[in-house]
Fold each of these.
Amino acid sequence: MSNLPTTFDKPVHIAVIGGTGLGQLEGYEPIAVVNPITPWGPPASPIKILSHNGTNIAFLARHGLHHQFAPHEVPNRANIASLRHIGVRCVIAFSAVGSLQEEIKPMDFVVPDQVIDRTKGIRPFTFFEGGVVGHVGFADPFDAGLAAVVKRCAESMEGDGVVLHEKGTVIVMEGPQFSTRAESHMYRSWGGSVINMSTLPEAKLAREAELSYQVIAMATDYDCWHSFEDVNVDMVIKCMHQNGKNAKRLVGAVLDQLSNIEHSDLVMAKQWEGYAQGGLKFMTKPEGRDSEAMKKVEYLFPGVWES
Ligand SMILES: CSC[C@H]1O[C@H](OP(=O)(O)O)[C@H](O)[C@@H]1O
Ligand SMILES: Nc1ncnc2[nH]cnc12
């Protein structure tokens, strides 16, 4: 991939996950590239460590370096576990989405606060199984503190009439085929704001891994409910060209905010610390725990079983 060092031993607490049309984050200085192998396999892409005004960030391409993983094939557990393992506690995830509402125009961004799961149960969706049971709350699937920081950075975006919408519900469908017209209308009747194929299980796994996580949805089309042309890949990619520039601007502004000392607890996800681990120890009694399953959890939470 490059001549960059393949180890990195300084702290990196913030990660950006890039999706369709955002396979890399240009304009940031690359300083290393690491490829941790997790108990759930390797992440979709090596993790690039980038530097921005003295802050290190990790960048991971959700669909792989060459966009080789379809939405249902993305190794979500390895992606989230590898980020946590290298020290990441705060994740900004980008996603190309279809708009389900007139006022969310292609090229607008949305900071969703809710999600509706329309995946079909074929994607591995938990770290806690096979002899270790854990349940985490998911009533509010994203991190309100991180969302507030992102919203404060709206002015960093450019383009005529481009808006950053401050809330919304993301429908996560299975794909890889786009929705039927009937489905698209149904999602609108449910109150869906935007639709994609990747925020779940990514957000659930981030919660299990005790990370602050916020998706930033970048509208590329009006799906197929609108009189505008039905969604197709060409449309998404063309729109992502412009969206990618705004994503980069927004990341820069968010990182500048997060580097302020007042946000250090947010960056370290103090609000989630121990949230999943406490439940794990409480649910499965020691005599029922499977040693392999425990080892996997230990990768996420070193020392979890000792206390
Ligand atoms: C090519 S359009 C469908 C594709 O785009 C979105 O990807 P991502 O969320 O990774 O930006 C959507 O979720 C689908 O995977
Ligand atoms: N209309 C759409 N449906 C699902 N995922 C998408 N990603 C971008 N546009 C989309």
Amino acid sequence: MEWDWEGFRHAAAAFPKPSGIDFSYGTAGFRLDASLLASTVFRAGVLAALRSLSMKSATGLVITASHNPASDNGVKLVDPGGGMLAMRWEPHANAMANASDEHALTEVVRKIIKEESIAFGDESCGKVLLARDTRPSGQILLAAASQGVAAVAGVAPVDMGILTTPQLHWMVCALNKDQPATEVNYYSHLSQAFRTLEQLRPDKSVRRSSLASESIIIDGANGVGALKLLQLQELLENLQFEVRNCGRAGEGGLNDGVGADFVQKEKAFPRNFDKSDALKKCASIDGDADRLVYFYFISSTISSPSTFNLLDGDKISALFARFIRNQLQSLVEDVEEKPIITTTLVAGYGDVRVGVVQTAYANGASTKYLQQELGLEVSLTSTGVKYLHEKASEYDIGIYFEANGHGTILFREEFLAFLRTKHMWGKPSIHRLLAVSEMINQAVGDALSGILMVEIVLMYLGWSIQDWNDIYADLPSKQLKVKVANRAAIRTTASETKVVYPSELQKAIDTEVGKYDGGRSFVRPSGTEDIVRIYAEATTQSTADALAQAVAFHVYRLAGGVGPQPS
Ligand SMILES: CC(=O)N[C@H]1[C@@H](OP(=O)(O)O)O[C@H](CO)[C@@H](O)[C@@H]1O
Ligand SMILES: [Mg+2]
């Protein structure tokens, strides 16, 4: 098959790059005001098509700006395994997005084809699955991406319509395993696994604690996830949830005072929730349904003030880790002698490596709980799901979550194959682990499958949301942002916990940390905004606040702060 370069240039010329913008494939793809994105998504379509040819498998592309305002949009690329675009290809994405015109773009594409040894022939055929969230700009941008895919010889775009980001990841993964890449199959997979886990509950009569409630109220962020939750609900007999903020008239706009990012950052009710929901189990997902947090409110009494309780990604991770650990423990023959299962010797398999992956933003109390209470190995990576996912895939069972609520549980294929051959052992824990691997999205963090997992674990334990919250108390923490002239001026090491440049900055942070009992602080340049983030933890809220303030001041002073100086 001949590449029609003239046709390619012609197609690209219809999507001129806006001048004066430097596009960057950040922590999670390109994201910007929607009016500036047509050229970028066309080019992302071209890249997804090239990646498909290079891997001889289907890839994916989703138009979304997640928790950002409705006027923004963005594009995320999905690799054949269902994970995010291989980091090695990100420079290609940047080079293409920033090519000045169709001629420069053609040169960049030729270079990528050569570097990646992409072959074109009659037999070469690729496929790119495309989806979008509910943003008004989505349809036009998806059409641009589709034209980008079609501009590459031998690659077909397939429009999957409106989906959550994790649904598209799941479908790319399914398609490449020759399974039906349909929404119906996604729901039936999740709901079937949920039912299996319900049936495998050890003691169905386990008494729920007083606050345990079957029902759950979910804030859908007025986005795509809300619509999909309603579809999922139809297949679940024993799990009731009420979805608020579905984008109905009068409920407000996408991500506008609603959604997981809002709830996690503000530690406050999203719109359409209030004090009348006291003691109810509530959850919130983000605008593309790849993040999940839980929360509940306790009203004030004569002796205590009201509290808004957030159960973030760290707490979800701890709950999942506890469940996985318990299931594995019952696979070990001499449980008594092996109460701690960082590695568990399972007859016929050997050491099962279980690990939990966190970033430096994980609350110190969660790390302590995982290590000391559960006896699990905890690894630290840089911020960004792509790093956590990669690390988690090194384990037989790897649990990863960012504090913001994005995460999942990954099972190594060899370990699952082993479990499948051991069905005859008759141990329910084998069937439970297999069902969890079917229910929880193996491609990427998925709020929908996350909700099912949280609910089933609470059901097993007979726990209320408050019981779950009480597994550990978060250390008081504070996050601040400082605007600097050039965020690249700060360089870090040790999974972003130490500054290497400017070196005086780390010395100043160490001095400040030394002043506070139990203090911890680090700074890093954001990968999604033009700022430096400051994180501080201490034994009281006022000392955590003071430590964060002091460190923010040093960032401003030593790393080229602009605008108002932190006090
Ligand atoms: C502290 C924080 O929440 N950082 C977020 C944020 O990245 P930054 O590089 O910190 O801007 O957005 C990322 C993409 O959604 C997410 O992966 C990450 O956890
Ligand atoms: Mg998201």
